Amino acid sequence: MDTIILAGGKSRRMGQNKALLPLGNERVIDRLINEFSPISRKMLLVTNHPSEFQSIHINKVTDEPEFKGHGPLAGLEIGLKSSTSQECLIIACDMPFASRQVGKWLVDGLINSGYDAVIPMFEGRIHPLFGAYQKGIQSIIRTCLLDQKRRMTDLINQLNVKLVEQNDAPDYLQKVWEKCFWNMNTMDDYQKALKHLGGQNEF
C-alpha cells in the first residue's frame, strides 16, 4: 500500500501551516510520516507549497494545474495518480493522532473486497480524509473535478463504499478510534492537542 498525506490547504483558520506545528519533539508532518512509514511501500506528500516542506524527504506532488485550489478532492486525484499501489491510504495532515493500526485495518478491508473505498465513521460522521481508496477511482475523481463537483461527498456518492464504525473494528482499535479522526484546525485545537500529548484528555 501507498500512504498519501494531504497537506495542500491554506490553513486559514490556523493562521499558519498546521502540518509544521511542533507536537512534542516533532512536527505534525514528521509525526504522521514516522507513524505510517512502517506499513507503507511508498509515501507521498500532496502540497501546493513544496518549498515549505524542503526538509521532508518523501515524494512530493502538487495538484494538477487545472485543479489547483479545488480542495482535498484535487489532492486525492493527484495522489492516486502518482501512487504505485492499487490500494492507498489517505490521511489529512490535520489528524495528528491518526493510527497506523487503524489505517492498516482499513486497507486490509479494501483488498479483494470489491469496494472502491473503505471509510470510517465516528458518532454518525464520516471521515473520508482518513480512508482507504482504490487507485482505479482516479478517473472518477477527475471527472468530478471537471464537472465542478469538488466536495468529497460528490465523489463518495458515485463509489461503492464500505462505511465502518467503531464497533466494527477489532477490540485492539477501540481505544484509539475517537482520537484517530480528531481534526486540528484552529489554535484552540492545537492547544488541545498539546494538552492531550501531555496526558490531559482534551477530546
Automatic annotation (TrEMBL):
Cellular compartment(s): Cytoplasm
Reactions it catalyzes: Mo-molybdopterin + GTP + H(+) = Mo-molybdopterin guanine dinucleotide + diphosphate
Pfam families listed in its UniProt record: NTP_transf_3
Record keywords: Cytoplasm, GTP-binding, Magnesium, Metal-binding, Molybdenum cofactor biosynthesis, Nucleotide-binding, Nucleotidyltransferase, Transferase
Gene Ontology MF terms in the entry: nucleotidyltransferase activity
Keyword Transmembrane: no
Annotated residues for binding of GTP: 6-8, 18, 63, 94
Entry-linked InterPro entries: MobA-like_NTP_Trfase, Molybde_CF_guanTrfase, Nucleotide-diphossugar_trans
Stretches assigned to the MobA-like NTP transferase domain: 4-151
Superkingdom of origin: Bacteria
Cofactor or coenzyme needed: Mg(2+)
EC numbers: 2.7.7.77
Binding residues for Mg(2+): 94
Function noted in UniProt: Transfers a GMP moiety from GTP to Mo-molybdopterin (Mo-MPT) cofactor (Moco or molybdenum cofactor) to form Mo-molybdopterin guanine dinucleotide (Mo-MGD) cofactor.
Family: Belongs to the MobA family.
Domain-related comment: The N-terminal domain determines nucleotide recognition and specific binding, while the C-terminal domain determines the specific binding to the target protein.
Protein name as annotated: Probable molybdenum cofactor guanylyltransferase
Organism: Heyndrickxia vini
